[in-house]
Amino acid sequence: MKEKILELVADLGKPLGELDSLEFLELIRDVEQLTGQRITDQQIVNINSAEELCAAVGC
Amino acid sequence: MLTFQVEKWSDALPELRELFPLLWDEVALDKDRLVAKCDEPLYANMEKLNLLHVVTARDGGKLVGYHVSFITPHMHYQGAGAMAFTDMYFTRPEFRKGGLGAKLLKFLESSLRARGVFKAYLSHKIAHDRGALFQALGWKPSDVVYSKVIA
Q1: Which residues on B lie below 8 Å from A20 (Cβ)?
Q2: Which residues from A are below 8 Å from B when comparing CB atoms?
Q3: Distance separating alpha carbons of residues A13 and B64, to the nearest angstrom
Q4: Where are the domains positioned within chain A?
Q5: Global ipTM
């Protein structure tokens, strides 16, 4: 699963830290759909990297 | 590292003062008739009355964004509970990446909910349309506000 999430980030063509807000939210939604897990608001505000995004969904 | 928190107006004020001119430069209207000057005594009184809600974004401790709202009952809905009316918000342009705006608004919503606020109002300037972001976060467009200098 982690590889798939990292692929989603890589497909955006720039690091997570360079995404604008709409791109960031779209990525969050894509990861939620991929994993079937909801990422909470508290988690979202603490996601600053692809690794932290993976950790938010437990991988 | 980015952090989001609720702060007292008076605690954040020294750093807020640095950002006010940037906000006004970017979005203020009628600049030929209105001189930007924050009424700090009035804000201080509102803080004493617990009518302010200040959310800040900090990067390594440095203030990089904020949202200020007024918390009051809505006079049309007696008993409905407190409502939040956006006063102003700003993020430093060089930090507008990594979803900063989305995170600030997510944190704002959570913090207002924790404060017991029932409904919140948020707006943007026509010339600085944030509608797509607001709607992506679940906010519904509800009003169009007009203004006119009449003096």
Answers
A1: 96-97, 99
A2: 16-26, 41-42, 44-45, 47-48
A3: 25
A4: 2-56
A5: 0.94
